[in-house]
Fold this protein.
Amino acid sequence: MLDSTGLIHGTPTTLGTSTFTVLLTDSGSPAQTATQSFSLTVNASFLGRNDTIQTATPLSNGAFMASISPYDDPSASGADTDYYKLSANPGATVFIGIFAQQLNPPSPLDSVIEIVDSSGARLSICKDPAQAFLQPPAVLDPNPNDFNDSCINDDESPSTLDSSLQLQVPGSATSPLTFYLHVLDWSGRARPDMVYQIQVSGAN
């Protein structure tokens, strides 16, 4: 529905892009007309924002769209962050990636992610995310392929602001490990257009 201010309202029921043409005619004599083509894209529904570990959104394997600051849940006390709850079995290797800059169109989110436990303490069961890009005189990890580094990452590589982590649940664990993905923006901003895609594999 198009209202008197020119805003489109409604609830989409199908994903995809629709193209349409708007025809405008004035009340003059003779009438003047103009046309303009538009396209409207309906993406997958967003997961929403969960600000605390206690309200973390359960997540599993797949690709999911989210927003660091949804329109229907604005922050009243500063920049927003998102928490997601995951679990994985002993010995499992889990990949988590955040894609914003690589979306089409790109999102302005400069993601930082970390993996924490239920108390918010950062885990150290990740592969070093920056090792492949370090140059001397930086101190290189003598074992870059082990899973004993702190689980935090800002940029996946020098060519993108997106981030990813790879973690491995200790094989000595006796039950699945529950952990939390914490997503935030490097600048501390929070805007409704800061959408991102979460990709998860290897989890339960």
